[in-house]
Amino acid sequence: MTPDTVTELGRQALWVALLITTPILLSSLVVGLIIAMFQAATSIQEQTMTFVPKLLVIGAIMVLAGPWLIGVMLDYTRELIRSIPSLISF
Questions:
Q1: Collapsed DSSP state (helix, strand, coil) of residue 20
Q2: Band of the pLDDT at 90, cuts 50, 70, 90?
Q3: Which of 14, 50, 84, 85 is the most buried if burial means most Cβ atoms within 10 Å?
């Protein structure tokens, strides 16, 4: 296995991780910003006010995007397993 191969495998793994986490993190960020603006406008500083909506949105995103997220992970894993013989060099 050459250093270029290891670098490419690492790059692909990071890309898959980015694809999987982006919908969840972006939706959580948007909800957090909306709640923070509401709290600033009303002077309500309740900590659970941000937690519950984020939890609900993350759950909804997992339900809606779950099949796509699993498909991305499965495609990467299948490709990685298929490439094992070419990665091993004696």
A1: helix
A2: low
A3: 50
38-85 pLDDT per residue, tens: 988 988 888 788 889 999 999 999 999 999 999 999 999 999 999 988
Query: Which one, of 61, 50, 54, lies nearest residue 22 by Cα?
Result: 61
Per-domain residue ranges of the chain: 3-87
Measured CA distances, 15 to 22, 36, 54 (Å):
10, 30, 25
- Are 72 and 20 within 8 A, CB to CB? yes
Contact 31, 59 (CB under 8 A): no
